Amino acid sequence: MRLAAPNLLRLSLATALALGGACLPASAQTVPGGLARVYPMGSMMGYATFGAGPTLSVNCVSYPLGPGLRVENTQQRVILRGDLAGIKGPVVFQRDSMGNVFRVWMLGANQTVSGLAAAPNRCLFRQF
Q1: Strand partners of residue 79
Q2: How far apart are CA 42 and CA 4, in angstroms?
Q3: Is there a contact between 73 and 116 (Cβ–Cβ < 8 Å)?
Q4: Using a CB cutoff of 8 Å and minimum separation of 24, what contacts does 9-16 make?
Q5: 24, 64, 78, 116: which has the fewest C-beta neighbours closer than 10 Å?
Q6: In angstroms, rounded to a whole number, what is the distance separating the alpha carbons of residues 98 and 4?
Q7: Contact 45, 92 (CB under 8 A)
């Protein structure tokens, strides 16, 4: 004899998104489009300056750029490596096991992210 399966609660897409949005971790940030940007564990944040060479300076500490570097602007669009020289602003970034930066997310001037570690700071006069 076969038993009928009990009726399962079926959530609409809007309800599922509302419930999922309430459970975002502390390292999530809402971007202007209404989408939440979630950063992987181990990400750090700071104030970055891209130099002409293959380096990135975050809080006055220089980091080498990895071969698979991916930089996203505030609209989540990729910035080409040739266009990076001279860009400054707050960022969230990730490093690989060799210490190379391989992923960078640019933040808006007033945006901050809670729950992320701050990058080491060696700046003498300006604290970020």
Answers
A1: 71
A2: 47
A3: no
A4: none
A5: 78
A6: 56
A7: yes
Would the pLDDT of 7 be above 60? Answer: no
Q: How far apart are CA 80 and CA 29, in angstroms?
A: 23
Q: How many residues does the chain have?
A: 128
Q: Which two tokens stand for residue 20?
A: 């999922």
- For 47-68, the pLDDT digits (tens) are 999 988 778 999 999 999 999 9
- Decide if 71 contacts 84 (C-beta within 8 A): yes
Please give the single-letter amino acid code of residue 84. Answer: L
Mean pLDDT of 13-35: 52
Locate 17 and state its tokens.
């998104």
SS3 106: strand
What spatial distance separates the first Cα and last Cα of the chain, rounded to whole Å? 69
State CA 49 to chain mean position distance: 16
